[in-house]
Amino acid sequence: MIYRIFAALLFSFLFVSCGDSNKNVKPIHFTGLQLDSVLKLYPDSVDLLVRHGNEAIQELRYELAMADGARAYRLDSSRLDTRLLYAVALLNKPNQSTDDILRAQKQFKFIIKKDAKNPKALVGLATTYSFLQDNEKAFKYINQALRIDPKFRDAYLLKGSIYRNLGNFERAVSSYETAVQQDPKFTVGYLWLGSLYESIQDPICIEYYTTAYRLEPKNPDVMYSLAYAKQLFGKESAAKSLYRKMIQIDSTYFIAYFQIGYMKQFSENEPDSAMYYYEKVIDIEPRHVESYHNMGMIYEEKNDITNALFSYSKALKNNPNFELTKERVAILKKKR
Questions:
Q1: What was the pLDDT predicted at 33?
Q2: Of 140, 127, 117, 135, nearest in space to 13 by CA
């Protein structure tokens, strides 16, 4: 059982840079001061909020982007860049609701009414329809954006995501390939391509993940994608090396510890080493069900049924429906 987290594959509007949406706004330059610090001095600066919010989106800090977007919109809703930032933040809001999607849709429609040739807003509107499973309208606005800008990378990205959800592998690959052709340094595009090939157990996924890794060699999420693919296709030594590099970059990246522990347990027959890594996971994320389950299996192998059941109880406390653990508990109870 291999636990898979691939944060980079959660569709997000990484392309948005709303600062150019209002042509009357001049770019802001700072000397020796970080944007966070300047924003504290001028918390009502719409220009600063828009820039700060866009950077937060690019860094996947969506709660911060939501706060910046909502404040910028309240301060000046006449600017299209504040509306665009607010709409994008709504689409990436944690625990997003249908109401959030509809509010974002309203903002995109407003922007398009004022600026009919805004491809970012058109793709944003298309995304709201794709979330609402109205693919016909989604494709309508994607194609409208591409008529305005045939090289607009993110239109192809969204098109690929829709095809992927529809199970059309060939068209999804074609769309993602076109996206990276428009922007050869587009890391997310290579990650999506890698994930598509990984989903059909094709080791060519390693090539796409490697390209993404070369573009962002210090991004632990990108490293994880490559490491997991190497692990999946029998390159476990290389995978472990990458997991360790991830831990050096971010010591709280608990899934890297888990995967090393998994290989120690199931590939290398080193249960004590595996236990060490699972305990590292639990120290960072006490709710990690799979680590508790695998620790229970190690205790079982040592015929330590008491601790095995204790570990399994921890797993079920955090996920009462985790079937693998329920099966082991049922078997152990029959033996007692």
A1: 52
A2: 127
Could you tell me the two tokens for 180? Answer: 């990276």
Rg of the chain over all Cα atoms, to the nearest angstrom: 23
Strands (E), the chain: none
pLDDT tens figures, 148-195: 999 999 999 999 999 999 999 999 999 999 999 999 999 999 999 999
Cα dihedral value 134, 140, 141, 145, nearest 10: 150
In terms of phi and psi (left: phi > 0; alpha: psi -120 to 50; beta: otherwise), the region of 303 is left
Identify whether the C-beta of residue 53 lies closer than 8 Å to the C-beta of residue 69. yes
Contact yes or no for 261/294 (Cβ under 8 A)? yes
Which DSSP string corresponds to 199-229? Answer: HTT-TTHHHHHHHHHHH-TT-HHHHHHHHHH
The tokens 């921890």 sit on which residue?
314
Dist. CA 298–CA 309, nearest whole Å: 11
| Segments in 166-270 forming alpha helices (H) | 169-182, 187-199, 205-215, 220-232, 236-249, 254-266
Q: 141 and 123 in contact (C-beta within 8 Å)?
A: yes
Instruction: Provide mean pLDDT across the span 121-142.
Output: 97
Lowest mean pLDDT among 10-19, 91-100, 132-141, 182-191: 10-19
pTM of the full predicted structure?
0.82
Distance CA 224, CA 256 (A): 7
Contact 164, 172 (CB under 8 A): yes
Asked whether the beta carbons of 19 and 243 are under 8 A apart, the reply is no
3-state DSSP call for residue 165? helix
From the list 60, 144, 62, the residue with the least C-alpha distance to 109 is 144
